[in-house]
Design goal:
This protein is α+β, with helices and mostly antiparallel strands. It is 17% helix and 35% strand. The protein is built from three helices and 19 strands. The strands form four sheets. Strands 4, 5, 7, 8, 9, 14, 18 and 19 form an eight-stranded mixed beta sheet that branches. Strands 1, 2, 3, 6 and 10 form a five-stranded antiparallel beta sheet that branches. The longest helix is centred in the C-terminal third of the chain and has 38 residues. It is elongated and about 145 Å long. It starts with a strand and ends in a 21-residue tail after the last helix.
């Protein structure tokens, strides 16, 4: 749960609230003159999610306003809806409601989807609505709002808005490890939403406060050093070690881990080489001695026996 002033916010799935990871080098900034919090979360392809916001009290809201409005941006694109939240109230949004040509309303759920990346040439229309710098980001802007009336939305509400998967050229990623985007699921019939009218005391450029959730795959979070890597088995050959397992371990290693492993193997090869040279030199000396007929084993002389019992003259 992330908190700024008297507002809390988090992203949740069917399994519960997603854990937030703070980058020490980029923990937050300011959105205009308002505070802004930046955290990372783990995303999975096909996973529905909701945005949960809670206004803890009316501090900083009343008397100039009586509520707060929340707008959502996914990958830089704004959902054309303003959600109203009153003090001491929780706001949970898991989808977007819009009108359709038949006069009814449908709801589409928010979910993470695979980001399509290609090396082929793209037409300008393929990525014209995509802000590459804000890819992989859920932005929640909170503004003070004074509600004057509430009514039922008409069938034109939100019509024509779509958040379909886009195709991105590999060069546009500029080395960033992005694998997911946010899309809207297939539409499901729903009832007409209530809409409010009133006065907005803040703007999108200068909101009351902003939360930014940068969603990444588990691999990307490990690459950023935000979550620990799984301990890898030693790459040194051992009896009974599966070679396929070693190859898999290499593919999961980071650049620093690979460099350290190369240095270790080089040092090991040097040690093995010196031992081999020493052994070869010992064998060479033995062969030279054998060829020259010399031996390290000294021969013992037989004792000379003198007989002093013979006949005398």
């Amino acid at each position: 749960m992330v908190r700024l002033k008297n507002v809390e916010c988090h992203i949740s799935t069917a399994s519960g609230r997603l854990e937030e990871y703070t980058d020490p080098d980029n923990s937050g900034d300011r959105e205009g003159d308002s505070p802004c919090s930046i955290v990372y979360i783990k995303s999975e392809e096909g996973q529905p999610f909701s945005v949960d916001v809670k206004l803890l009290d009316d501090t900083g809201i009343v008397p100039s306003a009586n509520a707060a409005s929340v707008t959502l941006h996914f990958d830089g694109k704004m959902i054309p809806a303003r959600y109203i939240m009153y003090p001491y109230q929780n706001l949970k949004r898991s989808g977007f409601v819009s009108g359709v040509e038949s006069g009814g309303f449908v709801q589409r759920q928010f979910q993470f989807s695979k980001l399509n990346v290609t090396e082929d040439d793209l037409k300008p229309t393929d990525s014209k609505d995509m802000d590459v710098l804000t890819l992989g980001e859920i932005r929640v802007s909170v503004m003070r709002y004074f509600v004057t009336s509430v009514c039922i939305a008409n069938a034109n509400y939100g019509r024509g808005f779509s958040k379909d998967p886009k195709t991105l050229h590999e060069k546009q990623l500029k080395g960033r490890d992005l694998t997911h985007s946010v899309v809207l699921s297939a539409p499901q019939p729903t009832s007409a939403p209530n809409i409010v009218t009133g006065l907005n005391l803040d703007t999108e450029t200068y909101p009351y406060l902003t939360f930014k959730f940068r969603y990444r795959s588990e691999r990307a979070l490990k690459g950023l050093g935000l979550i620990p890597r799984t301990p890898l088995p030693s790459l040194s050959p051992k009896p009974g070690l599966n070679s396929h397992r070693s190859s898999s371990a290499v593919l999961q290693m980071s650049r620093k881990e690979l460099e350290a492993e190369v240095i270790r193997l080089r040092n090991q090869n040097k040690s093995d080489g010196r031992a081999e040279v020493k052994k070869e030199n010992q064998n060479k000396v033995k062969r030279e001695r054998a060829d020259s007929g010399t031996s390290n084993i000294k021969k013992r002389k037989r004792p000379l026996t003198i007989d002093l019992t013979g006949d005398s003259d």
